């Protein structure tokens, strides 16, 4: 295609000149539509912009009545322009008026034009508007013309996304590109965070989209693709990558896409229309993303993420940018936005600057969520496509109570949330006033309320809350944030600090629970089909006894002259406990032999989180000094529902009769043997669930610091005999009862319990 001004490459160069001119946004758009019309030998060129109210407004035109600009508005389900916006696909017609979607707008004067070509104006797969050319003659637009118009639309997308057009819009009719968004997801970690977006995996901002030298750009693109292919092949050949498994399947998918002729061909064609290599990658990926966002097949939607990642790898290759966020330049009041991330990745940030976390995936009991709660970071998950809807630096509010996220919030919403933060602070003051009040239920039953911890930043919470002690100290967090394996002396220093902070209050140290989604950055990852069920926790420790011995030795030395409570995670058989306990005895012998000080007393227990132990309780309680229930893992294994998988993590309610009966079985058997049991999973950190646990017999709970006040306030008002009398008959229900949550909520409301 060659028009009056010499084709698409000349058009792009002229557009670049117009973009640089110091003119108003309206003048710039007016010049652009004239240029496009002349270049494509079109009698009409029009730009429609998607508004915040979901309608499309005519912002500029060459050929239609100029008086229709800013007056012609149509719904997104109306006309050919609406169809292009809704479907995010080009429409090319030689006789537009014969099409069933054609909508006649008399004020535009377009009834004399027959041929129609409309393309969506896209950015990150999201529709920002529609670019249209029309002619009186019945003509068919060529593939080259469609491609050229799509390339031009990419330039318009940057104008719209920049916010330049907002000044000319009426209130309530601003361009949708920068519109406020109110999204609803899954509340993961309580709290309210006000701040600005930091993308965990920042998009590469393509600053130069118009090429100066097409052969050079093609050469750059081909070179980057070759390098990308070679890097994927190298990863697949790495001995550390399993022969089978999810990680390998992802890499195989990457290799397939990287060798896909269609994908490479579309990028080369985009370069030939006048784009730089980076601009071509971005344009093709935006078009692909727009199509895939409108698909309902979950498999195809998952492939969209693969293509996003592959395109970002290619852009990094072209721009020389490295992967990952710039952690050293994290702004104050940062809200981290990510598809998903590991607990170690979150801990890698400066936690004093993070106010919130927004995830496309995420689950209420995932280890990432647990770490976010421990750090007091409000978090919301299940926010589909949120990464594609925000830009770095956008204002955002994260409501970890309701599961709502406000992106680019209006002033009144921001003001309302500022007031909500003040109200929450007052409520926290009321909880703080309960600090020295003993945790005794209304009927006089004492409850031991402990804290879950894992970092030095958690230690001040012991004094702030007046907690009975630390019911679970997750020792692996120290290993996850370190750049190298912590030496014995480093471990000893941490454990001693924890004991010093606790004073005469008990601390339960859990030995390393690594593996699964808790990967140490300096250890080679072992790829497994089902990592949660694989080589992790005590299994890894028993197979690598040197690792377990060094940690136990550090714990024993740190507790010199004091009591040490030690617990082993992921125990599946009593024999595993026996082997681990033997290592403790060996280390005690070693310390005695070498004249080291010893703890005053050593108590050793297990985490009850594997269902197999439910059928070994007599053997177990005849051996251990105490036990802790890890409700997160126990519930996920009971229901075979991966707590890190957003599709199934919340399908089964831990307040179902089956789960509560299993928990009651444990506490009843422990009572027979006179062994103390603490429930330290996230289940105890929610007031309604804590009510159920107390009702079935648990008198020791360990909760996250943020949950301590709400749970304690509920327990102080609880009539425990009444709660037990209400709950226990419900456990015998036979039939289709998915959860006791509604009944428990009704009981709490009637009793006036603060939830």
TrEMBL record:
<dbReference type="InterPro" id="IPR003018">
    <property type="entry name" value="GAF"/>
</dbReference>
<dbReference type="InterPro" id="IPR040442">
    <property type="entry name" value="Pyrv_kinase-like_dom_sf"/>
</dbReference>
<dbReference type="InterPro" id="IPR029016">
    <property type="entry name" value="GAF-like_dom_sf"/>
</dbReference>
<comment type="similarity">
    <text>Belongs to the PEP-utilizing enzyme family.</text>
</comment>
<keyword id="KW-0813">Transport</keyword>
<dbReference type="InterPro" id="IPR006318">
    <property type="entry name" value="PTS_EI-like"/>
</dbReference>
<dbReference type="Pfam" id="PF01590">
    <property type="entry name" value="GAF"/>
</dbReference>
<dbReference type="InterPro" id="IPR036637">
    <property type="entry name" value="Phosphohistidine_dom_sf"/>
</dbReference>
<dbReference type="Pfam" id="PF02896">
    <property type="entry name" value="PEP-utilizers_C"/>
</dbReference>
<dbReference type="Pfam" id="PF05524">
    <property type="entry name" value="PEP-utilisers_N"/>
</dbReference>
<dbReference type="InterPro" id="IPR008279">
    <property type="entry name" value="PEP-util_enz_mobile_dom"/>
</dbReference>
<dbReference type="InterPro" id="IPR036618">
    <property type="entry name" value="PtsI_HPr-bd_sf"/>
</dbReference>
<keyword id="KW-0479">Metal-binding</keyword>
<keyword id="KW-0762">Sugar transport</keyword>
<keyword id="KW-0598">Phosphotransferase system</keyword>
<dbReference type="InterPro" id="IPR000121">
    <property type="entry name" value="PEP_util_C"/>
</dbReference>
<dbReference type="InterPro" id="IPR015813">
    <property type="entry name" value="Pyrv/PenolPyrv_kinase-like_dom"/>
</dbReference>
<keyword id="KW-0460">Magnesium</keyword>
<keyword id="KW-0808">Transferase</keyword>
<protein>
    <recommendedName>
        <fullName>phosphoenolpyruvate--protein phosphotransferase</fullName>
        <ecNumber>2.7.3.9</ecNumber>
    </recommendedName>
</protein>
<keyword id="KW-0418">Kinase</keyword>
<dbReference type="Pfam" id="PF00391">
    <property type="entry name" value="PEP-utilizers"/>
</dbReference>
<dbReference type="InterPro" id="IPR008731">
    <property type="entry name" value="PTS_EIN"/>
</dbReference>
<dbReference type="InterPro" id="IPR050499">
    <property type="entry name" value="PEP-utilizing_PTS_enzyme"/>
</dbReference>
<dbReference type="GO" id="GO:0008965">
    <property type="term" value="F:phosphoenolpyruvate-protein phosphotransferase activity"/>
</dbReference>
<keyword id="KW-0963">Cytoplasm</keyword>
<feature type="domain" description="GAF">
    <location>
        <begin position="24"/>
        <end position="170"/>
    </location>
</feature>
